Amino acid sequence: MIIGFIGLGIMGRPMAKNLINAGYKLVVYDKYAKTDDLTALGAEKAVSNKEAAARSDLIITMLPNSPHVKEAVLGPGGVIEGIRAGSTVVDMSSIAPAVSQELAAALKVKGVNFLDAPVSGGEPKAIDGTLAIMVGGDQGVFDSVKPILEKMGSSVVLVGEVGAGNVTKLANQIIVALNIAAVSEAFVLAAKAGVKPQAVFEAIKGGLAGSTVMNAKVPMILDGNFKPGFRIELHIKDLQNALDTAHNLGVPIPLTAEVMEILQALKVDEQAASDHSAIVRYYEKLAKIEVRS
Ligand code: NAD
Fold it and tell me: Which of 150, 170, 202, 229 is the most exposed place for a label (fewest CB within 10 A)?
């Protein structure tokens, strides 16, 4: 089994390493990033998306957003030009569910299977191989690639037909964004009231307000460490996909719209490349106080 891995960024690189460590043969391609560390581990390098597909039995893509995946798979020199009938493309990027369905339909014409399989857990879980992977597609195709996905994630769940993986991921991203905003709002209040943020964290993290988001992001906030992790610009992309998808379905999502404007304000404030925990900076500016230990 040769796996073509396309998109070796913050997430794709450690995911590819876990596949190499599990004994799979990889052919890697990234349009911009270097792949020398992966070739040093035994991966082979392709010079295009088409070539990566032509040399592989299964293609995994881990790219920023819908246009990048469309370009890499369907564009000139793309996966679709090199891939063989009977192969499978697994897109693990977080993109618009409607685009996943578009990709599946275009690949089906060539006899190629498609799964959308976005992930949650961020860089630390990508490194540990403990991502949560939410998959949309046919049961049979899912069963055939599940053992490979299990090398990158500790939870691999088929949630429905193609597109369902990315619908689930949009739900995940709404919950994460609103949760970081709620944590930020609360901790700025506590700091301005003169209560030590570290003490607030210790006191409430085991109660009902506690969350994976709180455990991951409050230590970063207290350290003033906003190195990504998950960049604000990527969360803007996810919330835009959530807003578009929701509006097309006739679902108002007012809190998501509110947090989107907070992220837009941070982008104007040159924070687009910061971790999404920098949402706290928006609140810190409003209240003229910093939440630090
Ligand atoms: P990234 O920007 O670090 O990596 C994307 C890679 O894709 C880059 O190396 C880029 O050079 C490459 N690329 C772009 N266009 C390409 C093309 N046409 N052909 C080949 N390569 C191309 O992004 P990331 O943080 O690794 O995120 C990837 C996806 O995973 C995104 O959809 C993101 O929303 C999702 N995600 C990220 C995190 C996180 O914490 N970073 C967590 C969960 C999900």
Answer: 202
Closest atom of ligand 1 to CA, residue 71: 18
* DSSP notation for 190-247: HHHTT--HHHHHHHHTTSTT--HHHHHHHHHHHHT----SSBHHHHHHHHHHHHHHHH
Ligand 1 centroid from CA 61, angstroms: 9
User: Among the atoms of ligand 1, which is closest to the Cα of residue 69?
Assistant: 18
pLDDT of residue 134: 98
**Residue identifier of the C-alpha nearest atom 42 of ligand 1:** 122
**Taking the model in full, what pTM does it have?**
0.95
CA 280, chain centre distance (Å): 21
Domains and CATH numbers, the chain: 2-160 (3.40.50.720), 167-287 (1.10.1040.10)
Ligand 1, closest atom to CA 7? 7
Place of tokens 């599940």: 146
Which tens digits make up the pLDDT trace of 256-277?
Answer: 999 999 999 999 999 999 999 9
Distance 208 CA to ligand 1 centre (A): 33
Cis-peptide, bond into residue 140, ω within 30° of zero: no
Q: What element of type H or E holds 32?
A: none
- Identify whether 169 is a catalytic site residue: yes
